[in-house]
Structure formats: C-alpha cells, structure tokens
Amino acid sequence: MPTLFTTCEAARYCHLSPRTLEKYRVVGGGPSYVRLSHRAIRYRQEDLDRWIDENRRRTTSDVAAPSLTAGQR
Q: What pTM was computed for the model?
C-alpha cells in the first residue's frame, strides 16, 4: 500500500507551505494528488518524489518541461 500524506504532511515533505500545494491544486503545476472525498486530499509519496525529480534544474536558464495534469500521467 502506498504512503499517503495529508496536505500539511506533503508540504513539510517538500519544504513548502500547505497553501502552496492548495494553490497548485487550483492552478496546476503541482504534484498529483488523490481525492478520497470532498475534504480528504492525499498525496502519494511516490508522486511527490516524481514531481520533485521532474523539477530538478542545473542552472537558472534550464527550461522547465511542460507540466502534465493528473489525468495525463
């Protein structure tokens, strides 16, 4: 069974604020998440790790790859 994090736990894991992850859920560009119910949002550790890896850069001039929405992964 995969490890599931709450928004606060996922934010701590990624060194972000919970509000940042909430914003990413609205505007896109953040890690994939699981909606268990209207109020129960969870993040799988493997999705957080993948998102972190996808956002690695070597220089400030590296171009970011286009983000995929959860449905495209």
A: 0.78
Closest alpha carbon to 36 in 72, 73, 2:
2
For residue 36, give both structure tokens.
């268990």
Cα–Cα distances (Å) from 70 to 40, 53, 62, in that order, read 17, 16, 23
> Domain spans of the chain?
4-54
Question: Sign of the C-alpha dihedral, residues 63, 32, 18, 8?
Answer: negative
Neighbours of 30 (CB within 10 A): 22
Class of the CATH-defined domain 4-54: mainly alpha
Q: Write the pLDDT tens digit of every residue in 16-64.
A: 999 999 999 999 999 999 999 999 999 999 999 999 999 888 888 877 6
The two structure tokens encoding residue 2: 């995969």
- Candidates 3, 15, 4; CA nearest to 52 is 15
